[in-house]
């Protein structure tokens, strides 16, 4: 049974949180509320999240400061952050959002369909990463056990090849996206592609370590 991804919604206004829940409920994932930056940081201490929707303008710790804390933590630095703001202060304000580590910056009122589509991309990426890590972990345990039968060895080799093929397909899509960026130069797309490349590089290294003959796979 595949676990649902968790999406963190951070806004000091209850009506805004309610609206976000209504928009994202169709994704059928677990939506977690936080009414302040402090509350969001507390939630991030115990749970893993696929993506964070973070309001910029909040009393006390605002969105930028909250994002800075998130990016300083080893556990949470790679979680995608989508900033939401009611006021567009121009390019400088938007740039500050990207500089704080956001993968996207959306001004209110936003198109519900567009927001849902953006969030779904990060949820799908998170779920694929979780599946790959779980399968790789099971394969590593089999390889390190050193007591595989011929059938188990063939099954492990087949699983490793399947994981590598799946990852290669995602890498191809990422490469195509990077080529498109040369033409569009969209800041949000650039940030998203950079985040995706970091994730893929880590997964490829982990998968390569499982190849027969590699140092970590020796048993």
Tell how many strands the DSSP assignment holds. Answer: 5
Low-confidence stretches: 215-219
Biggest sheet details = 5 strands, parallel
What's the order of the H and E elements? EHEHEHEHEHHH
Determine Rg (CA atoms, Å). Answer: 20 Å
Query: What is the residue-averaged pLDDT?
Result: 78
Q: What gross morphology would you assign?
A: elongated
The proportion of residues forming helix, as a percent range, comes to 55-70%
Please state roughly what percent of the residues sit in beta strands, choosing from under 5%, 5-15%, 15-25%, 25-35%, 35-45% or over 45%.
5-15%
Distance between the termini: 31 Å
The number of helices is: 7
Going across the biggest sheet, name each strand in turn. 2-1-3-4-5
- Secondary-structure content class: alpha/beta
Modified residues (4-aspartylphosphate): 55
Keywords: Coiled coil, Phosphoprotein
Pfam families: Response_reg
InterPro entries: Bact_response_regulator, CheY-like_superfamily, Sig_transdc_resp-reg_receiver
Explain the overall architecture.
This protein is of the alpha/beta class. Helix content is 60%, strand content 11%. The protein is built from seven helices and five strands, in the order E-H-E-H-E-H-E-H-E-H-H-H. It has helices spanning 14-24, 37-46, 63-72, 91-99, 112-145, 150-184, 187-208; strands at 6-10, 30-34, 51-55, 81-85, 104-107. Strands 2-1-3-4-5 form a five-stranded parallel beta sheet, sandwiched between helices. Helix 3 links the parallel strand 3 (51-55) and strand 4. Helix 5 (112-145) runs antiparallel to helix 6 and helix 5 runs parallel beside helix 7 (187-208). The longest helix is centred in the C-terminal third of the chain and has 35 residues, at 150-184. The radius of gyration is 20 Å and the shape is elongated. The model is unreliable at 215-219 (pLDDT under 50).
